Protein: CST complex subunit STN1
Organism: Pomacea canaliculata
Amino acid sequence: MSSAEETSDRTFYPPKLWGLSSLFNVFNKLYIRDIIRLKPYPGFPGAFAYGNHPVFKVDVVGIVVKAEEKDKIFIYAVDDGTGVVSALCWKRPFSWSGHVATPGLPTELQSRLTRWQQEIEVASGYQLGHLIHVRGKLKVYRGMMEIVASYHLILQYLWKDSSTAINMVELTGKIKLLLKHGFLSEFSFGDLLEQLENSDSEAKVGPAVVRQALCMLEDTGMVCCRRDCGAIYENLTSSCHLDRAVLSILKTECCKSKYKERGCHYLRVLDELRKTVQYSGINERAVLAVLDRLETDSDVMRTADKSYLPVIV
């Protein structure tokens, strides 16, 4: 988008008309230069005027040029080449980076413990030079524009002990091949690390960046995380446990008169899945990916926009 020119005869609209704007309530891809020039929308605190369009959310990609850690958040200065803006990223609710010394354990148990430690390792924040993608809401703090991130991800990760740059796109591409070729159907985080370590990649891949890649694949609906005895990831590109869970919900719900003829909407299926312990954190894309594949396999049929009936009840 190009920056809008300021004019004295600009018309600003009341909130009841904001839904007509293509920029309303979406993450707008703006240059940071344009973000820091935004002014409050006249008469409506919390909204900002891009031309005469109301803007709340933005989408930026840039390099971390400054990092500061607080009790509950990381504050990053992000530079996209046109300007610098602060991005506030909340810390993950669970953080553990300790090491358990177990010199007396047998080799096999020591190996399992190491894998377990890797699985619960979380990123300790981005570092200077990391290329990151940030989406979030705008706010003004002490006269300066900030982004309160609802989504953030490393696009390129530089390792301290290596000059090799690991491109996130290349890493996710490698994991996708493992998924499509059936090397990973149900797997733990440790299983994935082992597969990647056994590959012929020249770049060292660590747990933090692999976890980021898994988050990207969850966002696209290629994998989902199931909570059994720990976290198990399911490959949604082929038959999986989630298929059976979705079909079971459809069969139960479509016996009710409310859904018997017109089918059950996918959001209803999503709500029922989130009531279970196993799929409490599942997202919409995972459910839609499974329903699309079940429809292709003739296990369900679509009756209306994103509503489904099981073929055999």
